[in-house]
Structure formats: structure tokens, C-alpha cells
């Protein structure tokens, strides 16, 4: 009987040890679980911080890219403006010289309009006419173009009305007389024609 009691006691002790071992294992597992929960929370916090940092860096990168594109666009615009300015400078480089020579052309035309009576005067006029024509050809080579005015519709972009007249057989706004020639340099007006316009 003592053997049996010892056996029962031993069984009870073993069971108690098993229960305490199981309890210790459960406690350890709970600690592991609670530790892993804390570790998971810490990991989530680290991930959130990294996500925030990545978002901030992406935003800064986008801002820098936008600045770069604006600078490139400004550069392209400045380059295009410089090219257009250079083309305009080349196209109209003779403008100041031609403007200064227009009164010379006017004086030549007035001189050539004078009536000559002697042979010497006629010979002189022929020489002046040759000089005038060579000057006109040289100026045309630089892009000088005479504005047509007589018997044309008045255009304020090319004509300057200084007088009006009345001719019933012509429609209103027609140029009756050109008082001073107008000139253009390629597509730019150097001097408008001074004209008399029909009312």
C-alpha cells in the first residue's frame, strides 16, 4: 500500500511538475507574444517614419524637378529670343544708313525734275541720273523698297495723308497725288508716303 501511495504521490508530483512546466511554457509564450507585439509596434513605427521620410524626399525631388524644368524652359525662351534678335539685327542692319540716305534720294529726284535747256545742263542731268540709278540699285540691294501710293487705296500703315482733294470720277480714299515717296526696308516701314487723298 505504501508502494501504491508512493506511486500515487510520484504521479501527483509528476503531474504538478508537468503543470508547472506547462505554466512556465505558457508564461514564456505570453512574454514572447507581448514582446513580439511591442517589437511589432516598434517596427510599425520605424516603417511609418521611413514612409514619411520617403514621402518628404519624393516631394522635395518633385519640387527640384519642377524648378529644373522651369529653368530649362526659361533658357530655351532666352535662346529663342536671342536668335530672333540676332536675325532682326541682321535683317535690319542697314536701317539707320538707309534712313539717313532717304533725303539724298529726295534731293536727287528734285534735281532730276528740273527742266534743262542747254546741252551742258542736259549732259549734267544724264550723269546725275546715272548716279541716282546706281544709288537706288545699291539701296535696293540692301532691301530698300519704294511704297506704291498713287492711285492706290489709302492705307494708314503705309501712307500719311497731308492733304485732301476732290475728284468725282475716283472713289473716296484713293490717293490722288504722292507728295513725298515712302520707303520700306524689307517688311518694315522706314518712312510712309506723304499723300493727297480723295474725299
TrEMBL record:
Region described as Disordered: 1-51
Single GO BP term: protein folding
Keywords: Chaperone, Cytoplasm, Stress response
InterPro entries, per database record: GrpE, GrpE_CC, GrpE_head
Basic and acidic residues: compositionally biased ranges: 1-18
Pfam families from the UniProt entry: GrpE
GO molecular function: adenyl-nucleotide exchange factor activity; protein homodimerization activity; protein-folding chaperone binding; unfolded protein binding
UniProt entry tagged with the keyword Cytoplasm: yes
Subcellular locations according to the entry: Cytoplasm
Cellular component annotations (GO), alphabetically ordered: cytoplasm
Family membership: Belongs to the GrpE family.
Function comment: Participates actively in the response to hyperosmotic and heat shock by preventing the aggregation of stress-denatured proteins, in association with DnaK and GrpE. It is the nucleotide exchange factor for DnaK and may function as a thermosensor. Unfolded proteins bind initially to DnaJ; upon interaction with the DnaJ-bound protein, DnaK hydrolyzes its bound ATP, resulting in the formation of a stable complex. GrpE releases ADP from DnaK; ATP binding to DnaK triggers the release of the substrate protein, thus completing the reaction cycle.
Subunit field text: Homodimer.
Protein name: Protein GrpE
Organism in which the protein naturally occurs: Sporosarcina thermotolerans
